[in-house]
Amino acid sequence: MKWPILLLALLAPALANDRVTFAGDAYSLAFPQGWTKTKAPSADAEFARESPDKAVIISVNCDAVPEGASADLDATGKASAKSYAAAIQFKGEARLSDGALDGCDAKFLTLAPQNAEEGSIAMFAVFVDTKEHLVRIVSTMNPQLADETREACLAIVKSFRREEAESKDNG
């Protein structure tokens, strides 16, 4: 009876999500097992990960917000929608919506083709205003994702955490 418990205890770290910290360990995202490091689409990205089925690349950028200033999520979302649409030759309608992640205001951007004329690549982006940084989580993907990959992408975004806020709360 002890062997199965011991085996599970030894395997648990290997099965756990890979939590990646960024911006000097201020924030993190959890990636499911099998997501691998890959080259980021933009040179200024903190890092990028690719899904096991090679259908998705998620890259993360983090820009400091100057003291006394604030991130303009609406302007960022609209400008990003325009530049991302041009980059992937998206002809459809971009969708922007408001939300929150780990207590921070967020803007969600969707560029997903409904038919072949609108494009063959989808992009989803989340812009998070942490007050100290503007975090951009950008997913470039095949729009015909397997349900498992789609659920993994959503879980990754939902896993966003302010590490420094947690340590202040526990300190």
Could you characterize what this model shows?
The radius of gyration is 18 Å and the shape is globular. The strands form 2 sheets. The protein has a 7-stranded antiparallel sheet with strand order 3-4-5-9-8-7-6, with helices on both faces. The longest helix has 16 residues. 29% of the residues lie in helices and 35% in strands. It has 171 residues and is an alpha+beta fold.
Overall geometric form: globular
The residue fraction in helices comes out at: 25-40%
Average residue pLDDT: 86
| Distance between the first and last residues' Cα | 39 Å
Radius of gyration, rounded? 18 Å
Beta-strand residue percentage? 25-35%
How many DSSP E strands? 10
Secondary-structure element series? HEEEEEHEEEEHEH
Give the neighbour order of strands across the main sheet.
3-4-5-9-8-7-6
Spans where pLDDT lies below 50 across 5 or more residues: 1-15, 167-171
> By helix and strand content, what is the structural category?
alpha+beta
Major β-sheet profile: 7 strands, antiparallel
Helical stretch count? 4
Quickly list its features.
single chain; 171 residues; alpha+beta; seven-stranded antiparallel β-sheet; three-stranded antiparallel β-sheet; 35% strand; disordered N terminus; disordered C terminus
Overview in brief:
This protein has 171 residues and is α+β, with helices and mostly antiparallel strands.
Write the topology of this structure:
Elements: H1 2-15, E1 18-22, E2 27-31, E3 36-37, E4 47-50, E5 56-64, H2 73-88, E6 95-101, E7 104-111, E8 122-129, E9 133-141, H3 147-158, E10 161-162, H4 163-170
Antiparallel strand pairs: 1-2, 2-10, 3-4, 4-5, 5-9, 6-7, 7-8, 8-9
